[in-house]
């Protein structure tokens, strides 16, 4: 049967990664597509591509995130019209009533600040904090040097830190 | 607050959740299954009761082509039976009798004999006496389709765009070969035409497939596919007299008109076209014959239009317009019958013909990961979900 040996070799691992990292994969795709539907589609498209892959990569987790990222980029390229770039798409759009006003305000500030920073910085922060990827894994995903990735992250966090201090002194 | 505290606080923010099924193993399994069997026009033709029901009155050519689509997609089942696989590995030809009938009342809707030859050749011969016979030959490598109406001595030859890279004959054989034993469940043994047969049953989507193989030889004896999501009731497709690697005369697969048959032009067929394009064409026909109005109900409207335009006498040849409408209408109705309104598709009867900014119909294109929208001026575009209008109920 076509590709049977390859499929049987990696299928379980892929399933485990899909189930175990669903939220992280979804969020990392979402920060690119800004569309929940397209983020889900990107993840699923990536796993279809992964299933067809013949050789298992050295770092499967990083490779999966990389393929998902590529699929997310493909999604926005195929999109008939551009959507508004809304980083708040990664956060819960309908928080529970119990969420405090302070938390809502903090989230809104973060949303605005994320929107103001570069795409590389924003994506790196999301990949590290919400995708739960190490900097080395992010470097593999993005195919950039480790130093570059850590710089993106550091600069992004510093911007957040600085702006939050200016805005409200970290109440 | 230092950076680590900021990071902790950032991490505590509630993230947007994906849809309910996302992240579940069964969802991924379904995604993989669909990826192996991409949905296109052929897939959409799976449920064709409307087409089959009206086949006799419309014109054999388009009907047979539609039936071909049904048959070619019916072999997509992700089914397996290890005994048979070895016999299929080297198979270059496959042929079988096919009977489609209503499970509810037992009424036979269509009978045909089907032949496949690798590479890329398929022939489907109608065995419906009321049709007066006819056949379709499709050569996907050459990108040509021949539709012959034996009763009226006409032949339609069309290009089959988008199929040149595909070998539908091989895909059909592969569709059986790719069955995986672990997905099946045994259903015991029974006698079929004096032969002891062992059965395996498989579920896939809205279909249940039962494969019967010879206990003695492992040869395929019978395949039954029950289609569950047909609004009119259960439909079943039964394959019998299955032959692998029999010597077939290559002339069976000629895409030239038989001597003495009048060649009638026919539109180009796009194997990869979105059914939304066919909905647009169907609506164009409807508007043309109904004072530029769209139907209140898509399904009823198209069916009524076809009945209105169909030849009054059974022996009358259908016009080209009716033949085209039968093709477009079949594709449209097959599309909307293959999924739920509001999930797979939506129709907005309040849109007026010509309104270029309003969407009159959309279809979720799972393969393209987008939505095909038909606008009031009947152009078709891919759009994001966010661009879809609210449903009529909203």
Q: Which spans of chain B have pLDDT < 50 for at least 5 consecutive residues?
A: 37-83
Choose one word for the global shape of chain B.
globular
Strand content of chain A: under 5%
Largest interface, with counts of residues having CB < 8 Å to the other chain, equals: A-B, 51 and 37 residues
Mean pLDDT of chain A: 81
Helicity of chain B, in percent?
25-40%
Let me know the number of strands of chain A: 0
Class by helix and strand content of chain A?
mainly alpha
Rg of Cα set of chain A: 18 Å
The CATH architecture of the largest domain in chain B can be given as Clam
CATH structural class of the largest domain in chain B: Mainly Beta
Query: Number of folding domains of chain A?
Result: 1
The main β sheet of chain A shows up as:
none
Percent of residues in β-strands of chain B? 25-35%
Can you describe this structure?
The complex is a heterodimer of chains A (171) and B (394). Chain A is mainly α. Chain A has helices spanning 4-20, 22-33, 36-52, 60-78, 101-116, 119-129, 135-142, 146-168. Chain A has one domain (4-168). The longest helix of chain A is centred in the last third of the chain and has 23 residues, at 146-168. Chain B has 2 domains: 31-253, outer membrane lipoprotein receptor (LolB), chain A (Clam), CATH 2.50.20; 274-387, no CATH class. Chain B is an alpha+beta fold. Chain B is built from 11 helices and 17 strands. Chain B has helices spanning 3-11, 25-36, 41-44, 49-53, 55-58, 60-74, 82-88, 168-177, 275-289, 298-309, 320-337; strands at residues 93-102, 108-117, 121-126, 134-139, 144-149, 154-161, 185-192, 195-204, 207-214, 220-227, 235-244, 262-265, 269-270, 345-347, 359-365, 370-375, 380-383. Chain B starts with a helix and ends in an 11-residue tail after the last strand. Chains A and B meet through helix 1, helix 2, helix 3, helix 5 and helix 8 of A and helix 1, helix 2 and strand 17 of B.
């Amino acid at each position: 049967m076509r590709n049977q040996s390859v499929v049987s070799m990696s299928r379980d691992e892929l399933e485990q990664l899909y189930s175990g990292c669903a939220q992280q994969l979804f969020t990392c795709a979402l920060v690119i597509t800004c569309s929940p539907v397209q983020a889900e589609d990107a993840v699923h498209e990536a796993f279809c591509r992964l299933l067809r892959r013949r050789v298992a990569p050295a770092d499967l987790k990083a490779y999966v995130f990389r393929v998902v990222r590529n699929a997310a980029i493909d999604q926005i390229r195929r999109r008939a019209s551009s959507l508004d770039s809304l980083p708040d798409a990664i956060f819960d759009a309908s928080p529970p009533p119990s969420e405090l006003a302070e938390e809502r305000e903090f989230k809104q500030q973060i949303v605005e600040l994320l929107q103001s920073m570069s795409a590389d910085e924003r994506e790196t922060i999301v990949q590290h904090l919400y995708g739960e990827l190490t900097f080395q894994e992010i470097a593999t995903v993005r195919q950039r040097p480790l130093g570059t990735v850590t710089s993106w992250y550091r600069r992004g966090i510093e911007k957040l830190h600085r702006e939050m201090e200016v805005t409200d002194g970290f109440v | 607050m230092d950076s680590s505290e900021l990071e902790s606080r950032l991490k505590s923010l509630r993230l947007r959740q994906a849809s309910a099924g996302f992240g579940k193993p069964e969802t991924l399994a379904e995604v993989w299954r669909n990826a192996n069997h991409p949905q296109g026009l052929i897939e959409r033709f799976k449920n064709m009761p409307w087409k089959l029901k009206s086949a006799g009155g419309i014109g054999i050519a388009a009907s047979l082509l539609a039936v071909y689509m049904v048959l070619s997609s019916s072999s997509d089942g992700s089914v397996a039976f290890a005994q048979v696989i070895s016999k299929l590995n080297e198979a270059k030809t496959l042929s079988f009798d096919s009977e489609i009938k209503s499970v509810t009342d037992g009424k036979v809707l269509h009978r045909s004999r089907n032949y496949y030859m690798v590479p890329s050749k398929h022939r489907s011969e109608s065995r419906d006496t009321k049709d007066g016979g006819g056949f379709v030959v499709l050569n996907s490598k050459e990108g040509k389709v021949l539709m012959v109406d034996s009763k009226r001595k006409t032949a339609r030859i069309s290009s089959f765009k988008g199929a040149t890279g595909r070998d539908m004959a091989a895909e059909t054989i592969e569709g059986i070969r790719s069955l995986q034993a672990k997905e099946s469940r045994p259903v015991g043994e029974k006698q079929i035409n004096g032969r002891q047969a062992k059965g395996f049953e498989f579920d896939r989507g809205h279909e249940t497939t039962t494969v019967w193989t010879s206990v003695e030889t492992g040869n395929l004896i019978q395949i039954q596919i029950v289609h569950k999501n047909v609004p009119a009731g259960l439909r079943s497709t039964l394959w019998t007299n299955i032959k692998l690697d029999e010597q077939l005369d290559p002339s069976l697969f000629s895409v030239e008109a038989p001597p003495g048959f009048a060649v009638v032009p026919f539109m180009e067929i796009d194997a990869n076209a979105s059914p939304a394009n066919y909905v647009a064409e169907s609506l164009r026909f409807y508007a043309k014959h109904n004072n530029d109005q769209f139907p209140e109900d898509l399904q009823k409207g198209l069916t009524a239009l076809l009945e209105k335009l169909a030849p009054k006498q059974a022996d009358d040849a259908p016009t080209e317009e009716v033949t085209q409408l039968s093709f477009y209408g079949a594709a449209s109705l097959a599309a909307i019958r293959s999924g739920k309104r509001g999930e797979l598709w939506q129709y907005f009867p309040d849109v007026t013909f010509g309104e270029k900014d309003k969407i009159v119909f959309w279809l979720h294109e799972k393969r393209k990961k987008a939505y095909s929208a038909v606008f009031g001026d009947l152009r078709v575009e891919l759009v994001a979900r966010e661009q879809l209008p609210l449903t009529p109920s909203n």
